[in-house]
Specification:
The complex is a heterodimer of chains A (195) and B (208).
Chain A (H helix, E strand, L loop, with lengths): L2 H14 L10 H6 L4 H30 L8 H23 L1 H14 L3 H13 L3 H29 L11 H15 L9
Helix pairs in contact in A: 1-7, 3-4, 3-5, 3-6, 3-7, 4-5, 4-6, 6-7
Chain B lengths: L7 H11 L2 H5 L4 H5 L4 H24 L9 H23 L1 H13 L4 H11 L4 H31 L1 E2 L2 E2 L12 H23 L8
Antiparallel strand pairs in B: 1-2
The chains are: A mainly alpha (195), B mainly alpha (208).
Amino acid sequence: MDFVKLFELVVSSALINNFVFTMFLGLCIFFGVSKKMETAVGMSITFTAVMVVSAALSWVVYQFIMIPLDLTFLKIIIFIGIVAAFVQSADTIMKKVSPSLYYKLGVYLALITTNCIIIAVPLKNAGEHYNFFESMAFALGSGIGFGLALIIMASIREKLEVADVPAPFRGLPISFIIAGLIALAFTGFSGLITL
Amino acid sequence: MSIQKKSNWELLKNGMFGENTIFRMAISLCPSIAVTNGMKNGMALGIAVMFVQTMVNGTVSLMRNFIHPKIRIPIFMLIIAGYVTIIDLLMATYARPIYKEIGLYIQIIVAFASIFARAEVFANKNKVFPSLVDGFGMGLGFLLAMLVISFFRELLGKGELFGYSLISGNPLLIMILPTGGFLAVGLLMGFFNWIDMRFYGGKGASGV
């Protein structure tokens, strides 16, 4: 196993091909939960964990069930099913095993199914023919990248609360413009690693 | 929301302007930035969404009396995923060059909040025809938003529309970069908020 390659994959999916700023996925959640630092941190943790596990599950299903049975054209349905089932069961298990954790992170869990990144990662893993560890690294990097974006955005938006923004731009429009400026900064990462 | 008393025309108008997916509700934002760097891509995705939205609304409405409320979420998901697979395979066959650029985003339609929301809020409680009209209106609103955004981005970023060169000279490269997408959506959203506040006395987008 090539650890350097895996590390490169994590860094590139977190920074260079950051899902939010260069591929524009997961924007609904990105703008939805980046209002407060606390929710942003909770969301990033939950999201990264769910992402890694669901990527692993879908990799196994894809390699050992869908390819042998020639079912790859059903990948959209199957992956969304896996993710939804996993999120639902994680929700139930967490409620039973650790109510305090559920109280803190349960809200985000419910939101995750509507996040495009969660379905994009298995689809990309399947499309790029990553092996198991590469898929894990890609999922982890994507989760970290999303968390990073959320936390940067939340820290700016907390300051924005007291800023004097023109009325029509209050709320979402100004957040979009800020995200644009952060995206501009993120373009600086391109070319850091060439895979 | 109980049974809708609105006429079909009102439903259509509501989807296009009153509850426009991108500018008013601020959901399903991902593709509004990702595929709006050219009008061709924007239109292709808009049409795909329109198809999925209309068909999903119709199907959910047809089946609304048979779906047990407790398991409606997975069932809606499966219905949506089915139609997304159809449009995905259709596009992969008949629109190969466009599919190569926006293929991932076509598949992502499955996780669109707007489609799910309309199935849950409207189609699940209304008769088939109004649901179809509602889905069509929402899809049309989405298509319009995509066209408006990509119009500005392509015109300013490349000086072209649908690939035909219109303006010579140095275009604003920033508009077709990722940054430009965020800026364009932010500015347009602010502009529509301003219109709403100035002329209709609204409170601006109901977004987060």
